């Protein structure tokens, strides 16, 4: 293409000198090459992307960040999940078993993903916070996974949610009263703070003793051993 352009320019009866044509041709070639390199870095290699933290299965926070963490529990493992998360549903029983066999003195807590807008996977955070405040969330979690993922029930709609509550013998009046309480609002705020602080963009995510965020990248038995290793490592690095 460039050779053809050069021949056309040289064949034209213009005022351009040969050196001008050569310089112009070199300029076109260099510019094209630079644009090609830039394309690969932006769209293929993601050189200029600031989303590295989102794509990693392991994220470490420094001592200062650990001290500023919104997580209240020390020596803890926090799972962040969503009722709309297929992988959360699959690993739920394994996670529950893992929580029962943690080292002595370690606390485990599961919270629902929540964001300021409350959309996407965070859409069911209010349901979680309300049932948690009622003290019955864990016994209905499997049903909630099944309803949202498999049966496509839109629990974000009040009337649909009301029917679901009735089907599961949950007092709708009590539920909606508690859903508007300050206690539930505090739970939602806490969940949002953790989601934002640790930049959680996918579920399930596990926060190890305020310092590490990990996403499952291996079979669950190996993954649980990995989390225990990180928990022990975090004790040595405590600020």
Automatic annotation (TrEMBL):
Belongs to the thioredoxin family. DsbA subfamily. Keywords: Disulfide bond, Membrane, Redox-active center, Signal, Transmembrane, Transmembrane helix. Pfam families: DSBA. This is Thiol:disulfide interchange protein DsbA. SUPFAM superfamilies: Thioredoxin-like (SSF52833). Residues 90-214 form the DSBA-like thioredoxin domain. The lineage of its organism: Bacteria, Pseudomonadati, Pseudomonadota, Gammaproteobacteria, Enterobacterales. The chain crosses the membrane at residues 21-43. It comes from Providencia heimbachae ATCC 35613. The keyword Transmembrane helix applies. One of its GO terms (molecular function) is oxidoreductase activity.
